[in-house]
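Tokens as discussed.
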């Protein structure tokens, strides 16, 4: 039996944080097995000089309007609630390298890296009252329009790679339609149609004074996070220390091909990951196997990727062989299930 459904329900009810930052204590959830062991927590602003933060800082390209009352109020909230920033330390380590990497590859404004922080608190199981879900908080119709799969097998709104790719394509389309990145960011939150109706075609720039309250506050929050990343010292906000290290630029996870549908228990045995950790690395999965129609891949810890490739390939081949020979084996009274081939045995216990 899959060990996660109850945990998923608890995460969903605890993480409905659509547009307001949660005044929560730092998360006490430990990273999944196989996660990098970089130092966590927050550190003094003076140490924020390299790694992912430096790269993100250099990619910021929008005006953040720090003197605007809305933005100033959001920055002050972050300053006065350091526990909120501390609670984001582990999720930022886990997801920002891959998300920001996709933003930088498309040469988009670095501010877009910050949208999932505001949208979901970087919690893949976050779900809003309106039905938006996942790291980028896609509603079902929009998600499907952007090519994400939502069915019995999986919900790609929770997939950090697929959802990020879809969100950035959607944002690029909004930018092409509206002409300004601040408007595209606001439209991502309230919808392009709602934004167009609200502004009635006005040539707004920052949109902080011209949009409905919900969109203006959302945009101000994005600008506040961006301003803090750009200059944490000036705003007296401490950022996660691990993000200052050069290793923070490396994604925590790598997509490894499986060549076909694969049972998660078989994949866990092949890689040596605990089954519940394999689900945590692959939050999009709903069932005890990968999707029969693909994508045929699993996310695994980056340090395990090279060993996992042949192991998962062998496990998939073993599973196909068992399925093809099941009628003959059953007729002979043979065993139709068992351990994967010996090619996978060396990985057992690798992350324990």
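Sequence:
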């Amino acid at each position: 039996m899959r060990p996660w459904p109850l945990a998923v329900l608890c995460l969903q009810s605890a993480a409905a944080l659509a547009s307001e930052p949660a005044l929560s204590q730092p998360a006490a959830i430990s990273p999944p097995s196989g996660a990098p062991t970089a130092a966590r927590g927050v550190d003094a602003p003076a140490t924020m000089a390299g790694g992912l933060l430096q790269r993100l800082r250099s990619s910021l390209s929008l005006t953040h309007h720090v003197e605007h009352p809305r933005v100033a109020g959001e920055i002050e909230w972050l300053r006065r609630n350091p526990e909120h920033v501390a609670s984001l330390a582990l999720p930022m380590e886990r997801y920002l390298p891959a998300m920001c990497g996709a933003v930088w590859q498309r040469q988009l404004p670095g501010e877009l890296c910050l949208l999932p922080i505001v949208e979901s608190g970087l919690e893949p199981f976050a779900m809003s009252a309106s039905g938006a879900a996942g790291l980028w908080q896609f509603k079902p119709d929009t998600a499907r329009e952007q090519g994400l799969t939502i069915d019995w097998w999986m919900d790609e709104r929770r997939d950090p790679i697929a959802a990020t790719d879809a969100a950035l394509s959607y944002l690029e389309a909004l930018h092409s339609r509206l002409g300004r990145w601040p408007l595209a960011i606001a439209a991502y939150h309230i919808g392009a149609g709602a934004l167009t109706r609200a502004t009635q075609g006005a040539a707004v720039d920052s949109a902080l004074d011209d949009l409905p309250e919900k969109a203006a506050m959302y945009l101000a929050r994005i600008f506040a996070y961006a301003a803090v990343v750009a200059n944490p010292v000036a705003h007296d906000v401490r950022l996660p220390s691990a993000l200052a290290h050069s290793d923070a630029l490396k994604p925590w996870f790598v997509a490894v091909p499986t060549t076909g549908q694969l049972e998660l228990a078989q994949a866990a045995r092949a890689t040596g990951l605990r089954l519940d950790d394999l689900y945590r690395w692959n939050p999009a999965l709903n069932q005890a196997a990968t999707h029969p129609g693909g994508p045929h891949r699993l996310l695994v810890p980056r340090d395990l990727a090279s060993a996992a490739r042949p192991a998962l390939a062998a496990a998939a081949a073993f599973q196909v062989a068992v399925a093809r020979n099941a009628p003959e084996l059953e007729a002979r009274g043979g065993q139709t299930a068992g351990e994967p081939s010996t090619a996978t045995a060396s990985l057992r216990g690798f992350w324990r």
